[in-house]
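Practice problem. Given the sequence and the SMILES for adenosine-5'-triphosphate, write out the predicted structure.
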Amino acid sequence: MAEKENYLLTTKNVNLFYGKKQALFDINLSFPKNGITALIGPSGSGKTTYLRSLNRMHDLTPGVKVEGKFLFHNNDIYSDNFDLVDLRKRIGMVFQQPTPFPFSVYDNVAFGLRLGKKISKHQLDEDVEKALRQAGVWNEVKDRLGANALGLSGGQQQRVSVARVLATKPDILLLDEPTSALDPISSRVVEDSLLDLKKEYCLIIVTHNMQQAARISQTTAFFNDGRLIEVGKTREIFLNPKEEETQDYVSGKFG
Ligand SMILES: Nc1ncnc2c1ncn2[C@@H]1O[C@H](COP(=O)(O)OP(=O)(O)OP(=O)(O)O)[C@@H](O)[C@H]1O
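Answer key:
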């Protein structure tokens, strides 16, 4: 694929091995500066494995070998001189279960901002508010910033987790089934905040929920057996896929 300037992150020929077992095969996929890309596919198809490779989460797992190119602003994130702390700020991750720390809402969001640099209380207040607004949860928490984040509802906790990632001003948000632990109403509220974020950020979301992928993403990538079978405009993937395997999956024949 020709490298286009408007891609923020481009992965080329990605292979990944858990010990001797190969879990990803020759994945070529690029992500634009703004918008939502959904990664779909049956259980065990490699979606999460691929997502986690995008901010080097596998570095922590012994026996994992990652091959290929991961060009972010044209630098390879796996090169030795790429600073890992900086990488994780610029490519943030939101997990399936909301992950608030057991301290106040404010401190949860301020956490990343306080790491490594001095920041005034005034600036911190502004940045915390901005991140909570962007994550669509400010109105619900503005009067309880000092309360323990664990006391919030699941949907609010998940949006606070999104705010915590946004506070460090990332370019990319990786979201691993961010609504699967939530009830349908909270899920829709989180989806709405993701839809707002897509104007400014590159979001990459793993989801089992095909309606969700269809509702919020502009691009969909279909994985099966560790391979990228097809990628395209979400509408095309759902209504007019090129590959029979994709057709079978989106029509519910397997998965
Ligand atoms: N830590 C690990 N060690 C060994 N094999 C693993 C590990 N994590 C995942 N795998 C294997 O890699 C393959 C891809 O798994 P992965 O979790 O990426 O799939 P997935 O599409 O995200 O599945 P799900 O939708 O169920 O989360 C599977 O065969 C899985 O068993």
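Check your answer against the key. Strands lie at 7-18, 21-32, 35-40, 64-72, 75-76, 91-94, 172-176, 202-206, 219-224, 227-233.
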